[in-house]
Amino acid sequence: MESVKRTFDILTYAEKNFPQESALAVKRNGKWERFSTADYRNEVDNFSFGLLALGFKKDDKIATVSNNRPEWNFIDFGMSQIGVVHVGIYPNISEKEYLHILSHSESRILIVSNKELYELLYPVFEKLDNLEEIYTIDQVEGAKNWSEIGRVGKEKANKYRELLEQKKAEIKPDDLLTLIYTSGTTGLSKGVMLTHNNIVSNVGLAIACVPYAKVGDEALSFLPLCHVLERSGNYLWQLIGLKIHYAESIETIGDDMRDIKVKVFITVPRVFEKVYDQIINKGRELTGIKKALFFWAVKLGDQLKANPADRSAWYNFRLKIANKLIFSKWREALGGELKGVISGGAALQPRLARIFRAAGIRVQEGYGLTETSPIVSATMADYPGVKWGSAGLVPDSIEVKIAEDGEILVRGDNVMIGYYKDPEKTREALTEDGWFHTGDIGNVDENRMLSITDRKKEIFKLSGGKYVAPHLIENEFKESQFIENIMVVGENEKFTGALIAPDFEFLHNWCHIHKIKFRDNKDLIHNPKIIGRYEKEVATQNKDLDHIAQVKIFRLVCDEWKAETGELSPTQKLKRRVVMEKYDHLLQEIYPKEEF
Questions:
Q1: Does residue 187 carry a pLDDT above 80?
Q2: What is the pLDDT of residue 596?
Q3: CATH number at residue 122
Q4: pTM assigned to the model
C-alpha cells in the first residue's frame, strides 16, 4: 500500500486491486442504491472537472453539512484531488456555530444534503459574504443542486483531464486536506488542520486492528462522516476492500444491519449501551427457566478474562452452552455475522467489552482526538492486545509520554499541524519539538497499553484539598440501567455531589412493573419511591469508590440530555458549563449557601 500517500490515492488503489460492483451503497426509501468502483471514479472526476471549471484553486475551502451517503465521498475525493480543503460540519449545531465555522474557514461554497438543512442554513448563507453559493445534494425546489457542478465537469472533461492529472501530481502528503472544527465542551470550536499524511498514516496503522475484515465484507456507516473517527474508518474500509453501506437513518440501523448481514461498524459507547439495555430489557420480559438462563449467561459473560489462558475448562464449557442458548440470539439481532465493532469518542464501560466479547462480538475501544487523526491507541482483535478498562495498544510508530502532572502527550505523523488561524492556541497545544498536549490524564503500562483516567481540565478539588476525577466516577455510575447520564460536581465544596439524568425508558418500565403511577417525568423524579430507589442505586455504585469520590447528595433531573438541547456535544461529551447553568437551582439545593 506504499502507493497510498494522499487520501484520494485510496480510490486508485481500490480500482487496481479490488474493483467492485457495489463499492458504496445507500438505503433510500427502503431500497439499496449501489455504486460500483467505476461509478465512484466517474463521479469523483466529474466533480473535480466541475470545480476546476468554476475556478477553484488549491487551498480554497468547501463546507459540507450532510448525512452519510455515497455523494459525501464523491465530493470529498473530488475536492481533495485538486487540493481544495474539505470543511465537514455537524448537522446539529447552533446558528452561532454555523456562522463561526463558515466565516472562520473562509468557505467559498456550502453543500447541504436535504431540504431541511437547506431551509435551516439558507439564512446563515445570506449573512456571510464569503459564501458564493449554497447547493443541495437531494433535489430541492428553488435550490442549486450539487450535480450541476458534476454536469459542467462532464461536459468539459476533455478540456480539464490533463489539468486534473497535473493538479493531482502537485499535491504532497503534507498538504492540507481538511479543517475539522472540534465540537468542544466550552466556547467556539477550533479548526483542526489535518494533512493527507496525518490521516493516511493513521488509517494505515488501523489496518492491524481489523485482521478479520476481508475484501467484500459489509461495513455499515451511521456516525456522522464529519466526525474524524467515522471519516477515517470510511477511508479504512475502502482501503481494505469492504463494501460500505450507509444506513437509511438512525432509526433503521438494526434493520439495516440484519439486511446486509453487517461484518463491522463504528460507533460511540452510548449507542452500544442502548443496544445492551434493549437486550437486557428483553431478558427481563422472559419468565421461568428462560429468564434464569438469560441472566446466568449475562453473569457468566461478565466474568470473562481477557487472556484465554486464564479461563478454566469449566468456564469455557459453560460459555459454550451460553453461546448456543443465549448469545447466539444477540448475534442474530446484530445481523448474525458481525465480526467486530470499533468504539470511540468516549470511554467504553469495561463490562460491555467483556460481555459482548463473551458473546462472540469484539468491541474494540480506541483513544484519540481530532488533533491526532484520531488514533493514539486501540484495542486489538485478540489478546494480548486486549485489556479490560484500557484504551488499547499504542502503536510503535506513535510516541506517548506521561507528563509530571499525569497528562498524556503524543507525538507522531498523526498529530495535526495546528489550529487554523490561531497560532496562540496552537502554541498552547503543541510544543516546539512536536508533542501534543491531549488534556487527558492517564498512564501507559509495560506492554504499551494506554489507560485514560480523566480530563485534565475536569479534575476538581474539594474544599478540603482532595482531588476528584469526575470522569471515572461517571463511567462507574453509568453502568446502572437506571442512569442514562450523570454529572459529578463539587469543585471547592465539602463533598462530591451529582446531577443524574435517569434512563426514562427503563424507569417507565420499572414503574409499570412496580405499579407506580405518575403524570410525567417531572412528577416521577419527585416521587419518594423513585428517589428511594435511586438512593439505593447510588449507594451500590458508591461501594467501589473511595470515600472522597463517593456521591453524598444527588438530584434527579426530568430531562434527557442531548446534543440537540445543548447538554452534550455532537460527539456525546458532557458540556459541563451548560449543564451547571441549566440546573443551577438544583446545585444550590446540593450546596446551599451558608447564612451568617
A1: no
A2: 36
A3: 3.40.50.12780
A4: 0.87
